[in-house]
Design brief:
Number of strands: 11
CATH architecture of one domain: Sandwich
CATH superfamily of one domain: q2cbj1_9rhob like domain
Low-confidence stretches: none
Distance between the termini: 44 Å
Strand order of the largest sheet: 1-9-6-11-4-3
Helix content: 40-55%
Largest sheet: 6 strands, antiparallel
Shape: globular
Radius of gyration: 27 Å
Strand content: 5-15%
């Protein structure tokens, strides 16, 4: 529109917008829409059109503002509310998206688009039961809706539903070219015990889409479970096929490091550093893994070259400085890390180690106050522990040792345990929540400066949850922290007689740092496993287990997180 020309009417503007889109000129279309919005601020259709164009341009914030205006002008029109919910999803504001959709729930129940969009937000908020309900509602109206078929299949996998493979087959019939659906089918086959079928699909995905990191990780995990020593070979093969993709060596290095192959991870990063000189991330990766491998001088030289403002550098350099006993430098780096993210769990964990090494009294405040570490009997009926153990053994038969976790030997259940549909697990979930409240009641007073106690009186919920079954042969957990948790745990379902011996085999050690830190500190507390008891402690405390050699030790673990009040 030329300067000084008369303003377009709202209908004329809509025609111009459509013409610009037909001419494949979304920039012009958006410019026309923005001007028309200023000329006609009370026109809901123009606001909706401007929102749609902003969303197509990747400007979710502007889109949400336009859609919000459309909803204010025409609050009864459900399509505008759905569009606004989609923009809110792009902004990761899923709770608000659901709240907006709820005002149209009566009409939305019979709309496939409404139900599918709502299901997506429930799934994003880790509420798979509600997600399943709304995906089912969408499919009842439109059985071939591809996004709903895909989402429902994913929810079935996450909840451990018996028909997960069949649901992926349904989704693939509607959209056979979707690589993520094929990945989901492979994962569902693995869960169902068809390892050969899962591997065939994983191998085909890696061959046809060598840059598909999730497929490379799946195939590597399958090779690890099969006992193959070259379990990361899918990454090496993919890097040969797609040498220009920096994501492949980055994931390769992290996969190796996750299972203590730090020296090999450092070499992968070093080679990638040469091939991708414009990617400083590889220098940081090489420094991190070289340091873990004990090559302090090599790591030191790289840290000296890194940009001062590089994200994540302060935290990793602090760890490096602790390893070199440069404690003042470590404190400075940790202060910088916490300035950027004041409640970073890993930074607080290293601060606790540093304070203990320097005899700083704040170490006691962080992890040693009475009540921060507790062992409590599970608030549950008689027999629940034994029944859950029997049911979980079946799950473990189809499970493996996961990539990138602390587990060294044994098996770990897949996904989020308490998202599954078994009634026994729902009962166990409720028993754990009741025990958590007893833990809360025995904590020290609220303290806004403390990473756990600042949430002493706020609502909690469980985030990740899983079961681990160790079967001897020096199985154990390496020392680690749960970087997304507030409170971490171990619920003992099966405890071997061996744990009662003087060797303290299979005991939980809280506060002993990982070996690669070279910090000679004993654990703050050593806990003897006791069947039916729950160990609870701050997620900022390093923890691991000693090895044991008996036939079986089974636990359920989870992270508790604070729930933001709305």
């Amino acid at each position: 529109m030329k300067t000084g020309s008369a303003a377009l009417s709202a209908p004329e503007a809509m025609v111009r917008i459509r013409m610009a889109m037909q001419q494949n000129d979304p920039v012009a279309a958006r410019s026309i829409a923005e001007q028309a919005r200023r000329d006609h601020p009370g026109d809901a259709a123009l606001a909706d059109a401007a929102g749609d164009l902003a969303l197509k341009a990747g400007d979710a914030a502007a889109a949400e503002a336009h859609f919000a205006a459309a909803c204010d002008i025409a609050p009864t029109l459900i399509d505008y509310a759905i569009n606004r919910a989609i923009a809110l999803q792009r902004l990761d504001r899923h709770g608000e998206a659901i709240a907006r959709l709820k005002t149209h729930e009566h009409a939305g129940r019979t709309m496939a688009r409404y139900a599918s969009v709502r299901a997506m937000s429930h799934r994003a908020l880790a509420d798979p039961a509600a997600a399943a309900k709304w995906y089912d509602a969408a499919l009842a109206v439109e059985p071939e809706r591809t996004r709903a078929l895909h989402g429902r299949a994913r929810v079935a996998l996450e909840r451990g539903e018996a028909d997960a493979v069949a649901r992926f087959d349904l989704a693939l019939r509607a959209n056979p070219g979707d690589a993520d659906l094929w990945l989901g089918k492979a994962q569902a086959l693995e869960v169902a015990g068809d390892i050969a079928g899962a591997r065939i699909i994983a191998e085909q995905l890696c061959a046809r889409a060598p840059g598909f990191i999730a497929a490379l990780s799946l195939l590597s995990g399958l090779k690890l479970a099969a006992g193959e020593t070259d379990f990361t070979s899918p990454f090496a093969e993919a890097a040969r096929k797609v040498p220009q993709d920096p994501n492949i060596p980055a994931a390769h290095a992290e996969t190796l490091a996750g299972l203590d192959y730090a020296r090999e991870a450092a070499e992968i990063a070093a080679n990638a550093r040469k091939r991708f000189p414009a990617e400083p991330h590889f220098a940081l990766l090489e420094a991190i893994h070289a340091g873990f491998a004990g090559e302090w001088d090599r790591a030191e030289a790289i840290f000296a070259e890194l940009p001062a403002d590089m994200p994540q550098r302060p935290l990793h350099e602090a760890r490096h400085a602790i390893r070199g006993h440069q404690f003042a430098r470590a404190e400075d780096r940790l202060v910088s890390a916490l300035d950027a993210d004041p409640w970073d769990v890993t930074a607080w964990a290293h601060r606790g180690i540093l304070w203990r090494l320097t005899d700083d009294p704040r170490a006691e405040w962080l992890h040693e106050q009475e009540g921060l570490i507790q062992v409590r009997p599970l608030v549950a009926r008689d027999g629940l522990i034994e029944e859950c153990a029997a049911g979980l053994r079946t799950l473990h038969e189809g499970s493996a040792m996961p990539l990138g976790q602390s587990l060294r030997g044994g098996t770990q259940t897949r996904g989020i345990l308490f998202h599954r549909t078994e009634p026994l697990l729902a009962e166990l979930h409720e028993a754990i929540l009741a025990t958590l409240e007893e833990y809360r009641a025995n904590l020290p007073p609220a303290d806004q400066a403390h990473p756990l106690l600042r949430h002493r009186d706020t609502p909690w919920a469980l985030a990740g949850s899983w079961s681990v079954r160790l079967t001897g042969g020096s199985d154990h957990h390496a020392a680690h922290v749960h970087y997304q948790g507030l409170i971490s745990s171990a619920l003992y379902l099966v405890v071997p007689d061996e744990v009662t011996g003087p060797e303290q085999r299979g005991w939980l050690e809280i506060g002993r740092p990982k070996r690669s830190l070279h910090a000679d500190l004993p654990p703050l507390r050593v806990i003897q496993p006791e069947e039916g008891h729950l160990a609870l402690f701050p997620s900022t405390a390093y923890h691991g287990t000693t090895a044991f050699h008996a036939t079986e030790r089974m636990t359920v673990a989870f992270d508790a997180v604070a729930v933001e009040r709305k």
